[in-house]
Amino acid sequence: MPTANSKLPTDKKRCSWCGTDPLYMEYHDKEWGKVTHDDKVFFEFLTLEAAQAGLSWITILRRRESYSKAFAGFEVKKVAAFDETDIERLKNDEGIIRNKLKINSAIKNAQLFIDLQKEFGSFNNYLYSFMPSGKPITGYTGPHVSTPESDAISKDMKKRGFKFFGTTICYAFMQATGMVNDHVPECDFR
After folding, report:
1. How many C-beta atoms lie closer than 10 Å to residue 23's C-beta?
2. H or E segment to which residue 15 belongs
3. Of 98, 118, 96, 112, which is closest to residue 165 (Cα–Cα)?
4. Model confidence over 1-15: pLDDT tens digits?
């Protein structure tokens, strides 16, 4: 998890979107586009990307530690069991986006996430069933906000009841978790 406290190399070429914000740069350098197959990481980013809907990513990134505390360290089974008391607690937590629809969707999405784990053996297996040859997309083809893969994943997830996970959010999720490598070719972190 980026902390923006470590010294970052200044002589490296980066994707322009991270600018010069140390937190953004650390996230870009150490996490964004790095392949993961860890369901806990997938659930974290599912929750964070859904919270980001309509907001900037840096807004969520700055609240990431608060989200981790508020959502039980992103332990999906714990979040899936949240009740009305938890919803009230979250609605009053100044460290997160206190949108009741987003809070409720995080809990419902956790329940649906577990259903997919049961059906496919893991959320990873589910996601990669949509990917060409079951592998990440590594050939940079320019900036996108969606792809046929993000369209298919988000459409299927919406049909299953997931909220705040349209194709654009799905594509950002795919970029964050390394399902697609969208570091520009000249980026030293590609």
Report:
1. 16
2. none
3. 112
4. 655 555 676 678 998
What pLDDT shows up at residue 138? 84
Active site residues: 27, 49, 57
Q: How far apart are CA 175 and CA 188, in angstroms?
A: 16
As a whole number of angstroms, the distance between CA 33 and CA 62 comes to 19
pTM more than 0.85: yes
Three-class DSSP labels, 96-119: CCCCHHHHHHHHHHHHHHHHHHHH
User: Domain map of the chain by residue range?
Assistant: 37-176
Residues found in the chain? 190
Q: What is the CATH number of domain 37-176?
A: 1.10.340.30
Secondary structure (H, E, C), 138-181? CCCCCCCCCCHHHHHHHHHHHHHCCCCCCHHHHHHHHHHCCCEC
Is-contact 174 150, C-beta < 8 A? yes
Tens of pLDDT, residues 34-77: 999 999 999 999 999 999 999 999 999 999 999 999 999 999 99
Q: How far apart are CA 93 and CA 103, in angstroms?
A: 11
Using pLDDT thresholds of 50, 70 and 90, give the confidence band for residue 144: confident
Closest CA to 67 of 79, 55, 56: 79
Q: Is 33 exposed, middle or buried (0-12, 13-18, 19+ CB in 10 A)?
A: buried
